[in-house]
Amino acid sequence: MRSQTIKSLESLRDTSIIVIVSGIYDDLLDPLAKHLEALEEPRRLSLFLRTGGGDTTTSFNIVNLIKQYVEEFEIIIPTVAHSAGTLLSLGASRLLMTRQASLSPFDPSVRNERINDGMNISWRDMNYFMSSASGNVSMNTRGANAEPLNALIESQVHPLLIGHAERTVSQIRTYAPHLIGNNSNRPPEEIIHHFLESNTHHNYRFYRDEVERIGLPVVHPSKTEEKLIHSIYDDVSRELDLSNTDNKRGKLKALIESPPYGKTVCINTKDYEGWIDDSEQYMKVMKSS
User: Fold this and answer.
1) Which CATH class, in words, describes the domain spanning 2-104+205-288?
2) Residue-wise pLDDT tens digits, 129-166
3) Is the pTM above the cut of 0.85?
4) What distance in Å separates the CA atoms of residue 20 and residue 256, rounded to the nearest whole number?
5) How far is CA 209 from CA 88, 196, 197, 213, in A?
6) CATH 3.90.226: which residues of the chain?
């Protein structure tokens, strides 16, 4: 059983583990808090995290929530902790990364329903377009140099969406260094620059060797630990059908699990959408849909 595998990894790492396989959104906070409450004064805490990203503010909120229960924590990354997941990872005292594990750039995006079926437009793409067109265009630009910005606004993106992306980037620059604290021997601002403003594509992956060079505290799992990590992840992946990339996965959308509390899942059916952890209620919802 997966719960026993989690306990085996806990024993090896001398820690309490909470598995999170989910997007990073505000509705994650309440179920996560229940799992944290179930821990009996843990000396150490490990988040077993797999995420493609989500809301950057929620990343800050998760770190702050966890630190109400423990002074420091590590993050175990089996495969991906991208975008908002990378931002969350900055708050960990160490990152236990497998050979497949990767972080990614921070790249806030805005969504335009008018073009390309509601494509996401990344802040990096907007910033690169404006910078390459006029040398250095910002939201305060006036006169002739403002033409690229005006063109972008008129044809593609509502100005409030650009403002939202700019505010998110400003929030990252201001608060992300506080997440790192004393967890690195490099200046936090240099680390933030690598993930926010280096010349890397949105889909670029920072594997563990590069993450170490950037300055984050990376730990390589032992062979036994890595085997357990992949066993846990593969089992969750099958349950959530993560290999199905056509966005038509089943009713189960996300999962939080810890030995003291059990399993909480996010489901999406015709009758119910949200997080649920009571087994009887869960079975009723699944049978009725």
Assistant:
1) alpha beta
2) 555 555 554 545 554 455 655 655 555 566 666 666 77
3) no
4) 5
5) 19, 18, 20, 6
6) 2-104+205-288
